[in-house]
């Protein structure tokens, strides 16, 4: 993957875009980072606020070790350094939804150090175009509350349910050079978090959001001044924000101006960014070690237990699907892109192998092709996701077994599948009820073949004179006469015999 693919054409020549992302991922945990209050999304405003979250005098934070465990597991999943000694700092600033007047974060000694994520921009051949994006650190911090400005004509309301919820801030290096690379990175990071189970990756609910750092430079020159666009909550919006912000900076520089280091906001309705405030530096926040919290010291056994708890991750799973199951890089990539797809496929694979009495590698291509074409196509048409599929892996395996043993043809299988979607009934029951069993009785098929050839004597002569393409016509006529229920292999064999 080359960096020359994406350039902004300005009046003074080409400009290169430099991108880094700071992703805030909400940790999957029943309670908050430093209190026992629930961290569940969707409760009534201010229904999940403990005295610690509300910063009542004398309240002391107590670390939630499940949140620490999930952050360590995430670090291990991106092959990062886990720091056995880390520390919490206070980041001091005033905001109406921050009751303490500071945020407990980690600046100088984060829990997780350097790691990386490998991305690909080529779906057809993911291994041919891999780029490694460096990750600088993951630090654990508490979220602020939420201000609501649309509930009252003259006042803003404060909801502190989110106050104190555990976040992992995953900070990339400025290694991305196009909106497409940033999109691929964000999708890959989200997939890893969901595989690990440390964050649900639900960007619509705000449990994963990105701060987008963008600068531009002439190729080969030092980095330019960057801006930070805050809290962008979809992959598409991140890519739009980069595109707009990079073009805006080029226009500023080419008109003789200077890019100001600032914090900006993205407007999804217009696809543009606008200035929010001048960018603060670390010293503006007066960071210092939180006096209420001891440093975190992790034992080697704890880190190893976290490592042992990790599932098979997307890259390893895709590699296994290619080498052990013989799937193409593209199909393997589709099946492993989302953890739900991989789980559904593996359930289908196990059921299919059992029902057909074969090894998983023998049925993998049949199962994978059916899932990625037939089921995905139907779900897309119905506007449903894999999680609420009307057909279960066991039902799908039953349908595939009926095709494999010759009970029904591939064409009839499509009809049966449609009826499964409509009724929720099993494939075997539908085949029995509708009389759709494939006809393999050679006697019955021979009679139809004889009639088709007799009715088309002129085409038989043409075929025998060398027009071999007509063979497909005879197959089609025979299948049509038998309402698609004839075994195609038997039809082919009998036609070859009859046509000499």
From TrEMBL:
Belongs to the GatB/GatE family. GatB subfamily. Heterotrimer of A, B and C subunits. One of its GO terms (biological process) is glutaminyl-tRNAGln biosynthesis via transamidation. GO terms for molecular function: ATP binding; glutaminyl-tRNA synthase (glutamine-hydrolyzing) activity; transferase activity. Residues 343-499 form the Asn/Gln amidotransferase domain. Its EC number is 6.3.5.-. It catalyses: L-glutamyl-tRNA(Gln) + L-glutamine + ATP + H2O = L-glutaminyl-tRNA(Gln) + L-glutamate + ADP + phosphate + H(+); L-aspartyl-tRNA(Asn) + L-glutamine + ATP + H2O = L-asparaginyl-tRNA(Asn) + L-glutamate + ADP + phosphate + 2 H(+). Keywords: ATP-binding, Ligase, Nucleotide-binding, Protein biosynthesis, Transferase. This is Aspartyl/glutamyl-tRNA(Asn/Gln) amidotransferase subunit B. Allows the formation of correctly charged Asn-tRNA(Asn) or Gln-tRNA(Gln) through the transamidation of misacylated Asp-tRNA(Asn) or Glu-tRNA(Gln) in organisms which lack either or both of asparaginyl-tRNA or glutaminyl-tRNA synthetases. The reaction takes place in the presence of glutamine and ATP through an activated phospho-Asp-tRNA(Asn) or phospho-Glu-tRNA(Gln).
């Amino acid at each position: 993957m080359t960096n020359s693919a994406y350039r902004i054409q300005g009046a003074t020549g080409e400009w290169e875009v430099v991108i880094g992302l700071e992703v805030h991922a909400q940790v999957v945990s029943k309670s908050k980072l430093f209190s026992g209050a629930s961290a569940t999304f969707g409760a009534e405003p201010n229904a999940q606020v403990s005295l610690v979250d509300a910063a009542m005098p004398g309240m002391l934070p107590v670390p939630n070790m499940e949140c620490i465990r999930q952050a360590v597991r995430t670090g291990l999943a991106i092959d990062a350094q886990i720091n056995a000694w880390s520390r919490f700092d206070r980041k001091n600033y005033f905001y109406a939804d921050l009751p303490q007047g500071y945020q407990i974060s980690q600046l100088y000694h984060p829990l997780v150090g350097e790691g990386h994520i490998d991305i690909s921009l080529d779906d057809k051949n993911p291994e041919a175009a891999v780029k490694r994006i460096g990750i600088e650190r993951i630090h654990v911090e508490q979220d602020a509350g939420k201000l609501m400005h649309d509930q009252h004509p003259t006042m803003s309301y404060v909801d502190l349910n989110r106050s104190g919820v555990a976040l992992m801030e995953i900070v990339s290096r400025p290694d991305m050079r196009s909106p497409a690379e940033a999109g691929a990175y964000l999708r890959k990071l989200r997939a890893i978090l969901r595989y690990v189970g440390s964050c649900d990756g639900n960007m619509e609910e705000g449990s994963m959001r990105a701060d987008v750092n963008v600068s531009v430079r002439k190729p080969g020159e030092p980095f330019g001044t960057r801006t930070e666009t805050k809290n962008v909550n979809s992959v598409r919006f991140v890519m739009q924000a980069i595109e707009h912000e990079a073009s805006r900076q080029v226009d500023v520089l080419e008109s003789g101006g200077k890019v100001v280091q600032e914090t900006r906001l993205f407007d999804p309705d217009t696809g543009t960014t606008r200035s929010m405030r001048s960018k603060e530096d670390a010293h503006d926040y007066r960071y210092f070690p939180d006096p209420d919290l001891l440093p975190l010291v992790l034992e080697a056994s704890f880190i190893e237990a976290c490592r042992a708890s990790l599932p098979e991750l997307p890259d390893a799973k895709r590699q296994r699907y290619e080498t052990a199951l013989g799937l193409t890089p593209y199909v393997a990539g589709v099946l492993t892109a989302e953890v739900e797809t991989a789980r559904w496929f593996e359930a289908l694979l196990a059921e299919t192998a059992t029902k057909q009495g074969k090894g998983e590698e023998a049925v993998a291509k049949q199962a994978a092709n059916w899932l990625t074409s037939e089921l995905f196509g139907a779900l897309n048409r119905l506007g449903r996701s894999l999680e609420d599929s009307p057909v279960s892996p066991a039902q799908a395996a039953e349908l595939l077994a009926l095709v494999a043993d010759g009970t029904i043809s591939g064409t009839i299988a499509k009809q049966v599948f449609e009826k499964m979607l409509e009724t929720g009934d099993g494939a075997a029951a539908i085949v029995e009820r509708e009389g759709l069993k494939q006809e393999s009785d050679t006697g019955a098929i021979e009679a139809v073949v004889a009639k088709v050839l007799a009715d088309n004597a002129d085409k038989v002569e043409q075929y025998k004179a060398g027009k071999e393409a007509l063979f497909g016509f005879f197959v089609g006529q025979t299948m049509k006469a038998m309402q698609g229920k004839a075994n195609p292999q038997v039809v082919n064999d009998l036609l070859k015999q009859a046509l000499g």
